[in-house]
TrEMBL record:
Protein name per Swiss-Prot or TrEMBL: HYDIN protein
PANTHER family: DLEC1 DELETED IN LUNG AND ESOPHAGEAL CANCER 1, HYDROCEPHALUS-INDUCING PROTEIN HOMOLOG
Residues covered by region (Disordered): 56-90
Recorded GO CC terms: axoneme
GO biological process terms on file: axonemal central apparatus assembly; cilium movement
């Protein structure tokens, strides 16, 4: 009996890389930006977007030690499979993020919409955490 296996981990890219700047937005109007989360590996993975913990710098350094692939600006030319979405929008201050979770197949991608509805005058900054299983 011959037995074989190949150990792999999830590979992905996030475009654009942080930060996402909406610039000046007229009070009472909306502006939208899109983030593309792409699976560059051979396994399905699930993702979940949530508000980053207060000490996000500690989270960033911890996750980079686990072998995450770095965000890449390169586009992949292979056909991408669609992903399934499992959760509604996340509201953070004047920002709305959708979808907030889902599953992406090998070489698939998910477009994530970040909408800014300018309410009060002033600057609004939020930090998001994109958690990818089995990274």
């Amino acid at each position: 009996v011959r037995v074989s296996a190949r150990a792999v981990y999830s590979k992905y890219s996030i475009e654009p890389a942080s930060p996402i700047n909406f610039g000046a937005v007229l009070k009472g109007t909306k502006k939208t930006r899109t983030i593309v989360l792409e699976n560059k590996g051979v396994l399905n993975f699930n993702f979940c977007i949530q508000q980053a913990p207060k000490d996000a710098s500690a989270l960033k350094s911890r996750s980079s030690k686990k072998g995450e692939s770095a965000p890449s600006a390169a586009k992949h030319s292979m056909e991408r499979k669609s992903s399934s979405v499992t959760q509604g929008p996340l509201n953070l201050g004047m920002f709305t993020v959708s979808p907030c979770s889902g599953s992406i197949g090998p070489w698939g991608q998910q477009k994530i919409t970040v909408e800014c509805l300018a309410g009060q005058e002033g600057t609004c900054k939020e930090q998001l955490c994109i958690d990818i299983t089995s990274r």
